[in-house]
Design a protein that fits this description.
The structure is a single chain. The chain has five helices and four strands, in the order H-H-E-H-E-H-E-E-H.
């Protein structure tokens, strides 16, 4: 009963109540994305890992995905989301901590397998986290350029 109540609550939260009996192929891309988030919330409680949640989305759907990820992160204070993506602007908009991963090279310049954190940014300290409309500010744009420039040095 508790699990069914949670499913119903999430379906309402993500505006999918009327889609509960449909198969994935009958859902839009955005609806399937919301269902996958619900599945993660149901199976892992407070930890969610997302791999490229913005890829293949048009600008309107990307903004909706950003809003949805922000909503999920604030559903419960213990929710922790790990988002892996190449869309720096979207990542900065949803994050409070940003890690840039890179690979080490050996003395011959060959890539050593695996990646590690090469640079960490605390977006709270930078005043970029949890601010409505932050993506429209000059400091946001400057920071995104700075992060993109860092990739040249990783």
């Amino acid at each position: 009963k508790d699990k069914l109540d949670r499913v119903k609550e999430y379906l309402e939260t993500f505006e999918l109540t009327d889609k509960a009996s449909l198969y994935p192929c009958q859902l839009s891309g955005g609806q399937r994305q919301r269902v996958s988030i619900i599945q993660e919330l149901l199976s892992s409680e407070h930890y969610i890992v997302m791999d490229e949640p913005f890829s293949g989305l048009d600008p309107i759907m990307k903004d909706k995905a950003i809003a949805l990820i922000k909503k999920v992160s604030s559903l419960h204070e213990q929710n922790t989301l790990f988002v892996v993506a190449h869309d720096i602007g979207a990542l900065v908009e949803i994050s409070d901590t940003l890690w840039l991963f890179g690979r080490d090279r050996d003395e011959k310049g060959e890539i050593i397998p695996g990646a590690r954190i090469k640079k960490e940014y605390n977006l709270i300290d930078l005043g970029l986290a949890w601010r409505p409309g932050v993506s429209r500010t000059r400091e946001f744009a400057d920071f995104v350029v700075e992060v993109k420039d860092q990739f040249l040095n990783l």
